[in-house]
From TrEMBL, chain A:
It comes from the Bacteria. This is Glycerol transport system ATP-binding protein. PANTHER family: ABC TRANSPORTER ATP-BINDING PROTEIN (PTHR43875:SF14), MALTODEXTRIN IMPORT ATP-BINDING PROTEIN MSMX (PTHR43875). InterPro entries: AAA+_ATPase, ABC_transporter-like_ATP-bd, ABC_transpr_FbpC, ABC_transpr_MalK/UgpC-like, Mo/tungstate-bd_C_term_dom, NA-bd_OB-fold, P-loop_NTPase, Transp-assoc_OB_typ2. One of its GO terms (cellular component) is ATP-binding cassette (ABC) transporter complex, substrate-binding subunit-containing. CDD domains: ABC_Carb_Solutes_like (cd03259). The keyword Transmembrane does not apply. Gene3D superfamilies: 2.40.50.100, Nucleic acid-binding proteins, P-loop containing nucleotide triphosphate hydrolases. It comes from Roseospira visakhapatnamensis. Belongs to the ABC transporter superfamily.
Automatic annotation (TrEMBL), chain B:
This is Glycerol transport system permease protein. The lineage of its organism: Bacteria, Pseudomonadati, Pseudomonadota, Alphaproteobacteria, Rhodospirillales. It is found in: Cell membrane. Keywords: Membrane, Transmembrane, Transmembrane helix, Transport. InterPro entries: MetI-like (IPR000515), MetI-like_sf (IPR035906), Sugar_ABC_transporter (IPR052730). The chain crosses the membrane at residues 12-33, 71-90, 97-116, 152-176, 209-226, 265-285. Belongs to the binding-protein-dependent transport system permease family. One of its GO terms (cellular component) is plasma membrane. Its main location: membrane. It is a multi-pass membrane protein.
Automatic annotation (TrEMBL), chain C:
It is a multi-pass membrane protein. GO terms for biological process: transmembrane transport. It comes from the Bacteria. Gene3D superfamilies: MetI-like (1.10.3720.10). This is Glycerol transport system permease protein.
């Protein structure tokens, strides 16, 4: 198992990239901790798979280096990189049995027979697949096939990291949960570095100890699920994580107060004046409705019942926003007064979070 | 797979095809059956002879020889065209532009009328005016397809390889195209050799199209008539007289209707039987795979 | 949190291109660039040369005079002439052969696809009495040697007065083209989700209107592929076409056997006639080139 460093990494699928827009992956520096469980989260086309393929060596980056435990592996071919990868659709060798599938990476590396047998037996046991070993791999269900794909990575003792590219896409919903917990157990047992690509935020938040959010080819935030929720570093993170997403309201800021249209919102900290696009970000969970006479005037456009809670759709100075209604709260009429919890109001300049002065 | 709904009215949709093919296939087939059990002296009077013609054919040396030649020819064709077709498919370019160019060039022999294919090779192989014949002759090779049975065989086999290998290659190429990239990537990560990729990924994924390629090439090579007839006319001697050529000689050349009809039926049945054997052998592995899948689902 | 991250910056002009740096470090594990024989292009080129050489030779001959063909041996025409083509294009006995072939091929393609469309729909959407047997029986006709059918066809079409007509050949070729068209179209249709049919019926479409307006556009590539293969197999077949015609519907392929004159074979004209039979096929392939691979991809030919 190893620590992975990306240094000055950038990638473009064009031979001669000109501007920033030509890069599928914008320049980045990043460290993946040895034994860490990372979720790589972002919408389709944000560069997740490109990043994964660069780490596994299937792609050579246009610029920068990939280091495994300080050794430069940028130009090392995938089979010599000690990386395992589990793909979106299960890749198994149809003509082989489960046992032969698991032995395959070891045989290709000319590992001695007794060691192959021992490793395969151990991994099969860890995957709860010992009984399936003599079976033809082709006949198995999708979740079993995905476990074999993972097993082919685990049998190699030297595996530096295991990369997962949306591995649960084709798994039945009721098995997803089971497979996810088995994966967590395996991670605890073998302590491998794992990078798990997904576009499903629940999957990312429940599973990883660190979530990496990507947007338009750049990493916009790395943090624990709580950090992502409370202090999104980028308006995109606020919008992408959480349901409904964070409210983003254009404003002007002077000192410790912000003006949204004609109304004033108090802030917890003071901010130095800055150019660019200034916005407030506040999660619907931290918006109070029926806030009394000091609140901001807002129009109620709709109330949705999504089961566990209700969402009020509002308009504040013409900007759409949402608020989670507390149990039993009632909204009568077409207007209400809303209040924001100042500790949970974030300020963004050109979409990036800015820290206030105490 | 959802099961399809039962709807007997669907027969109305199939009816035109049924009538058309019945008209084209059943009536002639019945005529053949009818002839095969009767004899005639050419004055439209027929006599019932039972299975006499069949016995005649099965015991005739002429039929045995033609049959063995046919088997040898089809075996050679399959042994050359299938591996060569796979090899060509594996060598297809990856750039879109070149793929289109190569596909068009490769498909060209498939669209040439069969007698013209014969003509092309008849000309190409001639010792006096053909490039191949003349080149071989000047190299001192004793090649002459009108005189020497071995030369005739080589010419006919090479002609068929020229004519049909592209079909196998196109089928295999299509099969290869349907393999997702993830398979190749996984194989690279697993450290698989080029051979292992072919053996464990490409070949299994091509199995379906290969089955079709083998069946088509077997059937069509077993029915071959026009091309060798144009080149060699079945000669020298009877050395390239395949079943179809023999049959036409018998039916039209000698007007031996009963015997030809009996031979037709045996011929058709042989093709059906051998195709069935190929199909069964090549799909034999799949049966237990399906059974396990069902069992797997029951477990879950 | 042990992960650190700095804000991604746009790639600057100072970044050295990766390609430049790699040359120096060469360990066995590294990616190798180039090197080794280009086996793939070589095999492919050899194969294409093998395919094209005989055709080139025919083309070369068609542009030579008969004297040159028989007396001198040259890789390309020395005395370039189009006389052979002029012979064919000015003599109705020759060019009517092309017209006849084209007529019955087009008729056959239209008939085959037209009857195969509803049948393929039935096979892809419904189960009915004897469906599997019927499908299998259709396919066995693809295995019937034309030589077996030649004589019965001759008698059948003579008896109903269709001998030496285009429609006779077109119908005879249906024997192998209809099963093929059904097979190809069934494959394409099975790829169209059944929900589309159901939605259309709920929206009040009648079956014929749904089929023509919605379904056929969806499987247009399939219809193209099926038509291509019907065209191809009808165009290349000779045994049945020759047996069923004598004068009025004689195909070009049969006409080619008449190049024997008093002075022996007229090689130049024969070659020119051959080249002209390749042209329609080449044109058709060129137009459907993007669909061919798709059609083959279904594994249905």
């Amino acid at each position: 198992m190893a620590r992975i460093d990306l240094r000055g990494l950038a990638h473009s699928y064009r031979p001669a990239p000109r501007g920033r827009a030509d890069y599928a992956l914008k320049r980045m520096d990043m460290t993946w901790r040895d034994g860490g469980a990372y979720a790589l989260l972002g919408p389709s086309g944000c560069g997740k798979t490109t990043l994964l393929n660069i780490i596994s060596g299937l792609l050579v980056p246009s610029q920068g280096q990939v280091l495994f435990d300080d050794e430069d592996v940028t130009d090392i071919i995938p089979e010599d990189r000690n990386i395992a990868q589990v793909f979106q659709f299960p890749v198994i060798y149809d003509t082989m049995t489960v046992r032969q599938n698991l032995e395959f990476p070891l045989r290709n590396r000319r590992v001695p027979e007794p060691e192959i047998a021992a490793r395969v037996a151990e991994i099969a046991e860890a995957l709860h697949m010992t009984d399936d070993l003599p079976r033809k791999a082709r006949g198995l269900t999708a979740d079993a096939k995905q476990k074999i794909s993972l097993g082919r990575g685990l049998v190699r003792r030297d595996t530096a990291a295991i990369l997962f590219d949306e591995p649960l896409t084709v798994i039945d919903p009721h098995l997803k949960w089971l497979l996810r917990s088995q994966l967590k157990d395996l991670h605890r047992r073998y302590d491998f570095t794992m990078i798990y690509v997904t576009h499903d935020q629940t999957e990312a938040l429940t599973f990883a100890d660190s979530v990496v959010v990507m947007h338009e080819g750049a990493v916009v935030q790395v943090g624990t699920p709580t950090e992502l929720f409370e202090r999104p570093a980028h308006t995109f993170v606020g919008y992408f994580i959480g349901s409904p997403g964070m409210n983003v309201l254009p404003c002007e800021i002077t000192g410790a107060s912000a003006r949204v249209g004609h109304q004033t919102v108090p802030l917890a900290r003071g901010y130095a004046p800055s150019g660019g696009k200034v916005e407030l970000g506040v999660r619907p969970e931290f918006v109070r409705v029926d806030d009394g006479p000091d609140g901001l005037a807002a129009q109620v456009t709709d109330v949705e019942d999504v089961g566990r809670y209700r969402i009020a759709r509002l308009r504040l100075e013409g900007h759409p926003m949402a608020a989670i209604l507390p149990d039993g709260a009632r909204l009568d009429g077409h207007t209400t007064r809303v209040g924001f919890d100042p500790a949970h109001v974030n300020v963004y300049v050109d979409d990036h979070l800015v820290e206030g002065e105490a | 797979m959802q099961t399809k709904p039962v709807n007997q009215k669907a027969w109305f949709l199939v009816l035109p095809v049924f009538l058309l093919v019945a008209f084209s296939a059943l009536i002639p087939l019945m005529t053949v059956m009818n002839y095969s059990v009767q004899d005639t002296f050419g004055n439209n009077q027929f006599f019932w002879v039972g299975l006499e013609w069949f016995e005649d054919i099965l015991q005739s040396e002429r039929f045995h020889d033609a049959f063995l030649r046919q088997i040898l020819f089809s075996a050679l064709i399959l042994a050359i065209e299938v591996p060569l077709g796979i090899a060509v498919a594996l060598c297809m370019p990856t750039r879109r532009f070149w793929t289109a160019v190569v596909l068009v060039l490769m498909a060209l022999p498939l669209l040439i009328p069969w007698n013209v294919v014969g003509t092309i090779w008849q000309v190409f192989g001639r010792v006096d005016i053909g490039l191949l014949g003349k080149a071989l002759y000047s190299l001192g090779v004793d090649y002459n397809y009108t005189q020497d049975p071995l030369s005739a065989w080589i010419t006919v086999v090479v002609m068929d390889v020229w004519h049909w290998t592209s079909l196998v290659a196109l089928l295999c190429y299509a099969g290869l195209q349907s393999i997702p990239d993830a398979y190749y990537q996984a194989a690279r990560i697993d450290g698989a050799s080029r051979w292992a990729v072919f053996r464990h990924i490409q070949l299994p994924k091509m199995k379906r199209v290969l089955l079709i390629a083998v069946l088509l090439r077997f059937m069509d090579s077993f029915m071959i008539y026009t091309e060798p007839f144009v080149v060699t006319g079945g000669g020298p001697g009877n050395s390239t007289t395949f079943l179809s050529i023999d049959l036409v000689k018998m039916a039209i050349g000698q007007f031996d209707l009963g015997k030809a009809a009996a031979m037709s039926i045996l011929y058709f049945l042989t093709i059906l039987l051998l195709s069935w054997v190929f199909y069964t052998v090549m799909t034999s592995g799949e049966g237990n795979g399906r059974a396990t899948r069902r069992r797997g689902r029951a477990d879950a | 949190m042990m992960t650190r991250i700095t804000r991604p910056a746009p790639p600057g002009p100072t970044d050295t291109a990766r390609e430049g740096q790699d040359q120096g470090r060469a360990r066995p594990k590294r990616r190798t660039r180039g090197g080794g024989l280009p086996v793939k292009p070589l095999v492919l080129t050899l194969y294409l040369v093998f395919l094209l050489l005989p055709i080139y030779w025919l083309l070369g001959m068609s542009l030579k005079t008969n004297d040159e063909i028989l007396s001198t041996f040259s890789l390309w025409p020395i005395d370039l002439t189009f006389a052979n083509y002029a012979v064919i294009l000015s003599d109705p006995a020759w060019y009517m052969g092309y017209v006849n072939s084209t007529l019955y091929v087009v008729m056959n393609t239209i008939i085959s696809v037209a009857v195969a469309l509803p049948a393929a729909y039935a096979f892809s959407r419904y189960r009915f009495l004897g469906d599997k047997h019927l499908f299998f029986w259709l396919l066995t006709n693809r295995m019937a040697p034309p030589a077996v059918f030649a004589l019965p066809f001759f008698q059948l079409y003579s008896s109903i007065g269709l001998f030496d007509t285009h429609i006779a050949v077109a119908l005879a070729h249906c024997l192998f083209n209809v099963p093929l068209a059904v097979w190809i179209l069934e494959g394409f249709m099975s790829g169209v989700p059944r929900e589309i049919d159901e939605t259309a019926y709920i929206d009040g479409y009648s079956f014929p209107r749904f089929f023509a307006r919605i379904f056929m556009p969806l499987i247009a590539p399939g219809i193209g592929v099926a038509a291509f293969f019907c065209f191809m197999f009808s165009w290349v077949e000779l045994l049945l076409a020759r047996t069923l015609t004598s004068v009025d519907a004689k195909p070009i392929a049969a006409t080619m056997t008449r190049t024997v004159s008093a002075s022996g074979l007229d090689w130049g004209v024969l070659a020119a006639a051959g080249i002209l039979t390749i042209v329609p096929g080449a044109l058709v392939i060129y137009f459907v080139r993007n669909y061919i691979a798709k059609g083959f991809a279904l594994g249905r030919v």
